[in-house]
Amino acid sequence: MVESKPKAGFFVQRRHKAIASPTLTQFKSQISTPSYTGIDNNGIPDGPLGISSTPLDNQALSDIDRCFKRCSKRIGQRLNQYPDRQGELMLRQALSDHFYQQGFGFTPQNVVVTHGGMSAVKTALESCTQAGDTVAISSPCFSGLLEIIHQMRLRVVEIPSTKEGVDLEQFEFHLRNNNIQAGLFCTSHMNPQGINMSADQKRKLAYLAAKYQTPVIEDDVYVELSHNDEFPLPAKHYDTEGYILWCGSVSKTLSPAYRLGWCLPGRYLQSYISAFSTASYGVALPIQVAIADFIDSGLYGKYVKRKRTQLLQQKHQYTDFLRQHLPLGSKISSPKGGLVLWVQVPGLTSEALSNASIAKQLDIRAGKVFTSLPLYGDCFRVNMGHPFSPDVKQELEKLITVIEQAQTHIIEPSKS
């Protein structure tokens, strides 16, 4: 009800007309083979609405620059050595201290530092699956995860999304019948649907993993980006048997350019370190030390808090624009965190949207890239991580034009 504007004060927010969220498609989950081969943008340059990302503000850039300058002195002669393959202890300790303050405790000895969140997830899959195995995922599912699964020659079982997270009854059915060898779920502020798995669901997810002794990889790169300044405890918090492999990174909170992530592999720690070491000689030491300094100094926590407030404001701005300009009957998600909006437009098809986007040189993610099934053709994802600048507004206006060209028919909503 109240909006905070930096250096201006507090203001009563405008009352918004309610808008429906996209339909949560329900279906009986079955094994399928993803044919995903990557997003083909036909040479379209990356735009603010495409990749899920948010830029660093000037204050953070200045602060991190000072951390990098300090790290050179701290490293000294170690600059001539290979980094620790499990990760620099200074960073692992910083992560342990940081998340302990959020109510999520773990020891630095149980963390492995990786080359970003996707590297953390891929190594987790390598630690507990082999080609031909089947992995349970949410539906829709982040396209990058589908790409990794395809590259590793794994099969999937898509589990329908619900308002609380995913259909855990169907997930348990496949566990009970030995249909799957692992699970892979984004649990906080899911990409693309924006759902935050409830605490009860996370607790049950950890319980099911232990009950059926099946590894579950938790992709939690958005956990610190709640718009209400809360920290939703991950499923790993409820894991007492070590079957949850919790993966995170600074790619969404700071920058993907740092290529810095981590994993708490639980009982798979040794096989995880072995898998990561086989493919890598560790993560660049200067990056690890500088980010550890940024976290230890408290600057990271302050930055994330600023970012949460900014994302809440941007969510309202992007949603307001889309509500005013999308065709009648359109639906927009209302996530409590993260960087993306999931939009459903009646009569839209992914093929028509993709063709119109190419013609207009618009970077957008059509619904078809988030599934291995013939679903979500009338949906697309919008990144809302960039400030609502004139350039962003221009891209959104282009998006509306593309949708008008792509729409095959309009379904008039009921007047009753």
Helix content: 25-40%
- The average pLDDT value, as a whole number, equals 92
Count of separate DSSP helical elements: 11
Terminal CA distance reads 30 Å
> Low-confidence parts, pLDDT < 50 over ≥5 residues?
409-416
Taking the sheet with the most strands, its summary is: 9 strands, mixed
**Estimated share of beta-strand residues:** 5-15%
Radius of gyration, CA atoms, in whole angstroms: 21 Å
Q: Given the C-alpha coordinates, what overall shape results?
A: globular
Question: Helix/strand-derived class?
Answer: alpha/beta
Count the beta strands.
Answer: 15
**What is the string of SSEs from the N terminus onward?**
EEEHHEHEHEEHEHEEEHHHEEHEEH
What does this entry look like structurally?
36% of the residues lie in helices and 15% in strands. The protein is an alpha/beta fold and 416 residues long. Strands 3, 4, 5, 6, 7, 8, 9, 10 and 11 form a 9-stranded mixed sheet that branches. The protein has a 4-stranded antiparallel sheet with strand order 12-13-15-14. A two-stranded antiparallel sheet has the order 1-2. α1 packs across α8, α2 runs parallel beside α8 and α10 packs across α11 (390-406). The chain is globular and about 60 Å long. Residues 409-416 have low confidence and may be disordered.
